[in-house]
Amino acid sequence: MKYEDYAQGDAFQAEKRTVFSTQTLPLCADGQLAKPGDFVSATVGGWSVFAVRDKEGAVLVLRNACRHQNMQVVATPAGNCESFRCRFHGWTYDLQGRFVTAPPPVAPKDRQASDLHLPQLATAVASGLVFFRLGRTGAAPQAVTALPAYGGTLTTEIGCNWKVCIEHLLGEHAPSPDFAFAWPLLTVRRAGPLTIMEQVVPHTFLRTRLLTHVFGGPAGEHQAAAATIRHVCEQLQADRAAGAPALDEPMVVAFHKRLAEAYAT
Ligand code: FES
Fold it and tell me: How far apart are CA 114 and CA 130, in angstroms?
């Protein structure tokens, strides 16, 4: 990896077209969508999407782009609602992303047109998480067996490129039955009765959100660990931008190999 890949937006745009538009990606914990109307939104690798539990209890992932003028419909990271009203001109969608209504001055001429609904993406719920895919094909998420009960999710905003965060998480561990990397954005670690999933959300090329999903115990106890990850990643980002080489632990090297393969597609 060159230092530009961590410090400039071009690599992020390339990753948006390759890694993130073709792979199955995690979005949130299923437990974050406990009730109908619960939603979580994020920009993952440059793609703005949100997950919602509909009135029948199904989880959907939808593109977060209004059919009127392509603006973000869901502007908050998480919440609960009965419908989604775009704040720009008032187009309104139900919990399945279907167009419901719009104020007369901006209403579509044909209210029955099929392209008025928010596009629904391939969605899977597995291992306590919600996954989505932008492409037509892609590997199904691997299931984690014997997962303890969901305990909560911590959100940590980090001023670094997403690859720095992945490298740090991988560099802390040797391959073992208790630690796994689920390419491209998730690590799974067992620690006694706990299973901890660190989900990396590449928000922009220098803004990364880390979701720490804790199973088997309360999430609050992991606040200090998450703060340490943020501190270390921001320091590593500064090092990388100054030209320092990436870590050379085996799992980091394997990650770079996978990235190079994705870039070549
Ligand atoms: S962009 Fe959403 S209503 Fe106009």
Answer: 26
